[in-house]
Every structure is written in C-alpha cells, then in structure tokens.
Design goal:
The chain is built from five helices and seven strands; from the N terminus they run E-H-E-H-H-E-E-E-H-E-H-E. The protein is α+β, with helices and mostly antiparallel strands. A seven-stranded mixed β-sheet has the order 2-3-4-5-6-1-7, with helices on both faces.
Length: 161
C-alpha cells in the first residue's frame, strides 16, 4: 500500500466543518490531559493495537497532535498526527454506528489545518488502504515506490523465542 502526500499549503483555512459537526451534536476538539487515558482506552476498545499505540503518542505530544469527536459526552472518533513519524497524518477512526456524518473528514481536516498552522508544508499518510478517499477529501497524491515506507522495518511482536 502506498504512502500519500498532501499539500497543506493548498488547503483553505476553512474551519466551518466544526460548526457543521456542532449542528449534528458532535464536538471536534483536542482532548485535555485528564482524558488521555480515556481516549487511549477508547481507541483500544474499537481499533487495532497499533492505532492505540499511535494515539498514546499523539495524546502525549506537546502540544497534543490528536483530535477527538465527542457526542453526548462520549468519544465517537479520533485522529492524530506526528505519532508514527514527524509529518505523518494518522491514525483516524470513527465508531461504525457514527459513520456517514462527515465526522471522519472533519477530524482529518482539523489535523491537517493544525499541521499547517504549525508550519508544515506537507503531510504524509502512510500505508494507505483507501487512496481514493484521501484523493477526493484533500487532493492527496500517491508517492511513487513508497509501499510499506516507514513501516517496513517495524517489529510486529515483542516476544522472542
């Protein structure tokens, strides 16, 4: 699966997606310190161990590089960046029952605009399954010869025999 490149400097500085989500009863925001373990535990319950580890990193960064979607005082989605490597977007996930409300795109845009405000010119999405999603949502392009990219040498088990 290829990595993809997003030109942050081409993104409009339009945060209206926050108000659109608010109309649906969904708040997009960064978690506060006392919520760190709650976010990580929620991701662990709904997604993969790798995403849990990356979320742990994103919520520990200063400033945080993680956004959450909250509805009726419950997490329904999350996204992060600078978790696997600097300049990398992801992971991102929305609870299955809450998909189709634009929450994933709102989380994506919140992270990318936050990166842009920090001075990043580009964002990389690593090891992308759904290339069309990122192409349509933010004009991402595939990076040639990037399959497995930064993930290619990662250790997949902590057990040695």
């Amino acid at each position: 699966m290829p990595d993809m490149l997003i030109k942050l400097y081409d993104l409009d500085d339009d945060w209206s997606f926050m108000a659109e989500q608010k109309k649906k009863g969904i708040t997009i925001r960064k978690p506060i310190g006392p919520e760190k373990h709650l976010v990580v535990d929620w991701v662990s319950a709904h997604f993969s161990p790798g995403w849990t580890a990356e979320t742990d990193v994103a919520t520990a960064n200063t400033p945080r590089s993680c956004f959450v979607a909250v509805k009726t005082s419950k997490f329904i989605g999350f996204a992060g960046y600078d978790a696997t490597a600097l300049g990398y977007f992801g992971p991102i996930g929305v609870e299955k029952s809450e998909r189709g409300n634009g929450t994933g795109q709102a989380l994506l845009k919140a992270c990318l605009l936050d990166m842009k405000l920090k001075g990043y010119g580009y964002a990389i999405v690593g090891d992308v399954n759904e290339t069309e999603y990122y192409q349509k949502a933010v004009g991402a392009i595939e990076i040639p010869d990037s399959s497995s990219g930064v993930y290619r040498n990662r250790v997949k088990t902590g057990v040695s025999k």
